[in-house]
Amino acid sequence: MSRGNVMKRVGGGLAVALAAWVGCKPTPTTPKSVELVPLTNMVPIRAGTFQRIKFPVTLTRDFWIGKFEVTQGEFLSIMGRNPSHFTNGLDHPVEKVSFLEASNYCAAVTQRERTAGRLPDGFVYRLPYESEWEYACRAGSSAAFGFGDSADAAGDFAWTGENAEQRTHAVGQKQPNAWGLHDTHGNVWEWCLDWFAPYPAAPLTDPTGPVSGKYKLFKGGGWNQDAQFGKASSRFMMSPSNGIHFVGFRIVLAQPGLGEGR
Asked: What are the counts of helices (DSSP H) followed by strands (DSSP E) for the chain?
């Protein structure tokens, strides 16, 4: 057999093999789009503006926020532990949880929901920015509280120093605000994403607070203090690594953009 015939035979065999291999390759497909399925008890909040002291604060993106504070049962199911001081009910808000632990919970929920195909790329579960929290707490009101200007009405809406008997209570026991959120005043204070700093004396759009700081802030009042300390604009601060038995959190589901958190 001539060298030319050998090359033809070998070349022909390779051609057949290559043709078969190409025929077996999977056909490229377009990635399936993921439909957003928020967690149950998430309340949609439309973008808008509220008045903080003398200046307007505008939010340009819609978001979702938890109808309730995160409970001990929810935290335990995701993180495998319950750090709370009060352990008289898994339907009570988780507390004694640090900012870092609350953020880790949000990241774990985000990963679970994305893996389950319920969370498109870019969407995240996270803590609320202070502006988001306050906007949702006020629920369209310009009053000191989500329920009006007088702390005397707090008993119908909040567990505070006046009625909480020095402990937390199951979430959702009190009346909700106008947008359907429970316990935005009282029960436990709630972590926000922002580093603590004085309010800027200017109108703000989508504020996220300072880029760094020493303390993270929390809002909303709790079982440990009288209602007057839990106004919508009230804020306190603590090291992000500390947890205490009157601070918990609720979560936000954010669209791509103002959603990465820090």
From this structure: 4, 11
